[in-house]
């Protein structure tokens, strides 16, 4: 009998609680692109062309706690850009379970079509943009019927300030508000359709790095919090705590020389391994112009 991934078993019950916070963190649909560190741009007399190296996840392998291989995902990218063209998911027996095809236009992801192992369509995401910012994500089922619609609003600086979820009939299901301090996301508030607060997340930073994220209930009482530890500005440990400080679970990150996480290990409160993920990357050179008006 096929064993389920520990992420489904352990984190499944928490998925609904965190889905609004998690989905809102991405500024565009999934890309598996590691963003390079921002370059400090001083005012220049002439534009300067900069060549940067980015790292793309080419393969991701899941391992059970006993070291037996589980699911494996393989990604294929456009040779001239960082655009992901196809992603294939294989089960532990290396049988194709799922395939996703990505359609792009002028650097923007227009759609994701997912098929099962037999090549039958199961779902399609279609995206819309405003000023190159994602504003709509419509999810359609295998019969091309609308299931959900996500909408984002932004401030003048291009930061997300509101995220809304609608069902296929257009009824509002929930919405999220984002607040910033010092140029960083400071809090996220999740609301029900009637405008009642459901949960609140607050973020704390040190030296520009996220060190703590706290979750509060509808009465703004602490429920849990997650702490983050870094080495050389790279995340190496993430610990989820109950409100009294006891540990729920841990996540350990092992990074390569380029600063990319190549191994992620999930542990329970007693440091028993629950699951391990290994990642392989390919490098691409990206050219951009600094100092353009």
From TrEMBL:
Keyword terms of this UniProt record: Signal
Top-level taxon of origin: Bacteria
PROSITE patterns linked to this entry: PROKAR_LIPOPROTEIN (PS51257)
Signal peptide positions on this chain: 1-28
The protein, known as: YD repeat protein
